[in-house]
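I have been asked to look over a protein record a colleague put together. Alongside the sequence sits a line of tokens, each denoting a local backbone shape. Please read both lines and tell me whether the tokens look consistent with the sequence. I do not need a full report, just your reasoning and any doubts. I have pasted the whole thing underneath without changing anything.
>
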Amino acid sequence: MKLYNTRTRRVEEFKPLRDDHVRIYVCGLTPSAQAHLGHARSFLFFDVLRRYLMHRGYRVTYVQNVTDIDDRSINAAKTTGEYYHAIVDRYYGEFKESMRRLDVLEYDEEPYATNYIEPIQVMIRELVASGHAYVTQDGIYYRVASFPNYGRLANRNIEELEAGARIDVDEYKEDPLDFALWKFAKPGEPRWAFEPYGEGRPGWHIECSAMARSLLDPQGNGFDIHGGGADLIFPHHENEIAQSEPLMAHPPMANFWVHGGLLLFDSRKMAKSLGNFEPLSDLLQRHDPQAIRWLFLQTGYRKVMNFTEDSIGAAGLGLVRVKTAYRLLARAEAPAPQFDLDAKMEAALDDDLNTAAALAVLYEFVGSAPRANASPEESVAAAERLGYWLELLGIEPKASWLEDAPVELPADLKERLQSALQEALAGSTPSVVDGATAEEAIERIIVLREEARKAKDWAASDRLREALQRCGIELRDSKEGTKWTVAASTSTT
């Protein structure tokens, strides 16, 4: 198995530091506001990584923290008049329900930063004693100049970083790059006693260092994987390394640093000010959680991904195709394919957890030639292997998949068909979609296309075919007529 290591900027063979035990720390949510789809993408990737490591026979300890004390939650409390932890509890409870609906496995450890104040203070004392930190009027700061490797994870040099750094008017640090380990108490803010320095609260970066050391590496020999979104590489993960490694017996802090790519919403960064922000909980009310998973699996985890309503609709159609194949195999109504599913899935996922390639394997499996003289037992066995790999990807087969009724097409398909039809016919809107099911609308569009073909209006025929293709519907013409199927989406962009 190989993974891309941000620390070395190479795809490398993954081997645990301790026999068959893999220790993972992932930077979790800061619940000062509602979680969004970008959070979901990151945590869904690490969920699949964890599942695949267990498939490979490793014992996995997975830690994902909760940043329950930081500037944003404190500012939200000041604005609303609420206790800061009431805000944290509300937003984190909503996030956990979203993770449950997305079938994310429960974490082995779920540390809250405020439960690790003592380990945080121990680390700060050690950094001050070793000259890596210093005390000022407003807090305790890390001395970046004391760590020669600063900037290496982000592949940036000190001069470049200093050019963009600044010191706020209420800060007393020596250098613009220095960062807070402990902030002395201000009126109305949460505080903890810290002898001999004074009451205050921890900085963000030291929280993760202390929790990771306490739960995964108390001896200071490093752990296996540290993960998060690409936006955390600098400064958060860079600062974690700087404050952790000087105190370790055998650096590096983490053998592999693994980062997920950013998510755009309609080609733009998500922001309330842009009007394209939608809470994750609301999105899960509108879309099948399994289709959201499927959508994320279609794109390499390190790549920037663009979410659109069309993309989630197409992902839902692709999932329908696989669900239908599973149902037919499980009920022995289709012959088992002549296909080595296990070997091909492992080959895809061993290659830097290439879930896009893994989905291509599943599409190939459901469309492959049947095994000669396949028995009903072989069909059921093939369904079991398909179900195993779907569950490994977090798409657990449900009892409803086996029901007689065909799997429902995405709820928004009719609207997408109408939009595509209007574009294909240059604004003309024949009422082929009104009052029809999605299946009936598809059949009616096929009739329109057949009429265009009979009139030898090949341009109109092509536009109608392309309109269906944009909605994830593939046509197959034969002597017996035109049949439609759900197209397999194998995007790796």
In short: Residues 287-402 form one domain. The chain has 16 helices and 15 strands. The chain has a mean pLDDT of 90.
